[in-house]
Amino acid sequence: MAKADYEVPALRPYPTIPPLKNDSMKGKGPFVSRPEFQEPLGFPGDLPDNWQQAVIDKMGEMLKKYRGLQVFLDSCVKCGACTDKCHYFLGTADPKNMPVARQDLLRQVYRRYFTLGGKLFPSLVGAQDLTREMLDEWHNYYHQCSECRRCSVFCPYGIDTAEITMAAREILDSVGKGQKYSNEIIAKVYKIGNNLGLPPPALRDTLEGLEEDIEAETDVKVRLPIDEEGAEVLLVTPSADFFAEPHVDGLIGYAKVFHQAGISWTLSSHASEAANFGLFIGSYENMRRISQRIREAALDLKVKRIVFGECGHAWRVAYSFLNTLAGPFDFLDPKYPVPQHICEFTYDLLQRNALKLDKTANDDKVITFHDSCNVARASRMGDKPGGQFFIPREVIKASCNHFYDMAEDTIHDVTYCCGGGGGLLTDDLMDVRIKGALPRMEALKQVSEQHGVTHMASICAICKSQFTKVIPYYGFRMDQIVSVHQLVSNAIVLK
Amino acid sequence: MEYLYALLFYVATVIFIGGLAYKVYQYATTPAPLKIPTMPAPLTMSGVVLRLLREVVFFESLFRSNKWIWLFGWMFHIALWLVLFRHLRYFTDSVWLIIVLAQPFGKYAAFAMLAGLGGLFIRRILVERIHYITNPSDYLILALLIVIGASGTMMTFVTHTDIVQLKVFISGLRTFNIQPLPTDIPLLIHLASVFALMIIFPFSKLLHAPGVFFSPSRNQADNTRERRHLASWAAAKFETQS
Questions:
Q1: Is the dihedral of CA A98, A149, A412, A386 positive or negative?
Q2: Which of A3, A127, A238, A353 gives A118 a disulfide partner, CB atoms 3.0 to 4.6 angstroms apart?
């Protein structure tokens, strides 16, 4: 696809809030799912005749099951605090990409059918009938949200647009109007075991190839084992780590860390995927079903610990939900938290001087770190709040001599999303992905000019894929994006 | 007139308390199946209590978000509490010392309250983004609060009402013994708009007041790896009986 197809926003030295451009992102939204991707997930294949009633019923059912949804739909006072916080709004200027306006698409219908004010005086309280146009607006604008939760940080009531988006997508799925990208991938996980549809024999081949590569480069036999019963650690990592760049360099990094620490580990062909797109579509059932694979793999392989590779939303599901969805994990070694992040794992080893890193191996780079939204705002590492910011940076700083953070209002818990999260990492959403990356690109440009930063490290498969695809539009190079464990991999001194 | 206002008082009170109690019950009994605190979050429940206190006393998140909205919003809410506290003297038989001491603060807080409301109203009209998300009801609620504040301030500083008689009327309401109500226009406007506010409270965005305490992104502790969290409906649906 040629670059000229997309209107790329200009990088500004002093970012300001854009004036509204009504309907600038109006459209049909991403491809609608097909019946063969809907049915394995337990959703109807097509819009039923009584879809209006079905939508209202589903909404009513969810209001009873999710307190967040009920409280968030009631509590918004339209104060406007969130209106300039969304990267998609900043990049597109479409007012419906302001978090409150995005929520209002659902809230208008909630008010019409579930509140007294909306039943009696719809126009007074901004209540709207559920029409076919409304349903299409939902499909369009709820797929211009990456569920990154930046708005929820700033809301005085903690209203989390991600929860609203997930609810809207769950409702759309329940009337056969799912998103092709996410649902096709989930169907693939059920059928083959991972997002990329990589069958076990191909996976084994890939890992053998990587072992050969490492040996050719370092003269050390570093293993990438799979399905090895009795290993200490089960590593669950996004399938992009098996061959995408720069993800795979991160996987090589994990392998070297395990090798050097002398801890036996294994991947699993049954749970050959950390990603859990059930989160994106807001489906508790599907998220649970995908999570169960990890429990089953841990039991089958008789491991003592579970460690997750670099993946943002997977770490959210792992850290925050795995115990709920697939617990209890009382069969694992109680000395370690379940699950652990690979950065926590490496950081512990560094604390115990169990790894030797030669920082000069990364002297050709000046590094900055992109906090991934789901890690930053929906999970933790270590035993203190904020460890999710501290620990990856410590791992990076132990691996390189030159590190600079981006501007304060773009990192830590107010980090900007890469623009491709939440089920938006698909070519049919390229336009919104490019525009949504704007705030991060501006921060990167600033730190490049101020400190000569050459590379941006990330601990999320989606961030890495999104950035490598999108940054050329902003005048950067694809290979400026690196995995955190790629830096470790470069620096580690193997014995 | 006193019968109409007494009736309004009873209706408004029943709707306000009943409606609010229903919503609080609804929030309290609706499960939150997943742990979704906005991180970094406190690790313990006492930490959560502190987080919520900072949120409702200082509007911490709003302060991070937008200094103007914070200034006007915080000024209005804090002043409103002072004014409400001052009003307790119309409801208790003997006026406690602390309420006596609070009188001057409560009196002048009315101006801060009106200034805050005015600021919010003007922003709603002038800031394009906020204008876009505003419904007629958002203006009306602000206007109602301004009417309440302005009519009350009028009675404090310009045309006093017969406060002794008002207190007799209010005391009488408690024993369903309807006493005459002073008929000054500012007082009638003041009371009628307060009743209107009480009536719309449980049906409107004013539910943010109880809502903030039930917001899972603010009221949950970050302890998922240590403690398994399971909603009743999820347990019933998925956990096998063993």
A1: positive
A2: A127
